[in-house]
Structures are given as structure tokens and as C-alpha cells.
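Working notes for the structural subgroup meeting. M.R. asked for a predicted model of this chain before we commit to crystallization trials. I am recording the input and output together here so anyone reviewing the notebook later can reproduce the run.

Input as submitted:
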Amino acid sequence: MNRPLPTTATGHTGTGDLAVLMRQTAQGDKEAFAALYDALAPLVFGIVVKVVRDRAQSEEVAQEVMIDLWRRAAHYRPDSGTVTTWTATIAHRRAVDRVRSAQAAADRERAQAAREHRTAFDDVAEQVETRLDSEQVRRCLRGLTELQHQAVTLAYYRGLTYREVAETLRTPLPTIKTRMRDGLIRLRDCMGVTT
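Returned structure, recorded in C-alpha cell form:
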């Protein structure tokens, strides 16, 4: 059944007519919704595009608002305001939600990129620092006497105890302890470690 669209003298759908269309839409009248859509879609799109500022996203949000009107038509209460005001409120809220959602997504992406950058930088910096420290340790080890170098290397790189170092090097334990202490002091000084 075709219904003519109620219009005002200016050719636009009137406020009272929109309320009638909304009631009919709430009852599942697709033709009434089509007329409501034609009357309100330009308003909805205008509100949304002012907030969202992206035409493609605005079209998507406007479509969501119009679908929302179809689904929520039964919730409209004339005593709370006009159909136009109710629709404009829904459109504005949807548009703001889209902007907030897009901003939150952009913030998450930036934070993730920053974490990845920082992690990559930290890993590289740590590797460089480790290599520089290792090179400095090797250089400082070369400055030790042969017995100091052997004792420190066996104790700290192979994990031997003082007694095991003494047995491996066939040197008395007190001598190993003295050489290790002297060697560690020289290493500390060479590495620039302050106590």
C-alpha cells in the first residue's frame, strides 16, 4: 500500500508528520520508515560529518544511525522532544563514539609502536653495551699477569672455586687467593669501577 508522504507547505515533512511516521515505523511499517529515512538522512549525515570529518566514515555512521532509528522506533517518546531532536541526539552520540573509538585505536597503535621502538632500541643498546663491556673486560684481562689472568678466568668464566683453581693451576691455595684479589683489584681499576 503506497502512502503519500505528508509534507508542509514548503514541501518538507512536518514535525507532527515525522511523529506519525515514527509511530508507523515502530509498528514495522517499512514504507513509513522509507519516508522517515528520506526526511531525516540529510540531517543525520550533516551532524555526523561535522563531528567525524571523514566522508566515508560519516556515511557509515549515518547509516548506522538510520538502522538504529528503525530498531529503536518503539522507544521514541513524543513528550521527550521532537523526532528531529531525538534523531539528532542519536546521530551526535554515534558520531562522538566513532571519533572516540578512532582516537583510542590510534592511541593504542602509537603506544604499541612506541613500545616496539623502545624495545628494539633497548635491545640494540643493551647488545652494544654488552659488546663494549666484553671488549673492555678482555682488554683489562690482558693487563693482568699470567697467573692472575688464569685464576680469574677459571673462577669467573668456568665457575671453579678457589681450591679447584689452585688444583688446576697446581699452585698453593694462598697464592691463588692473593693473585685473584690482586687481579680483581686491577680489573676494577681498569674498568673504572668505583667502590
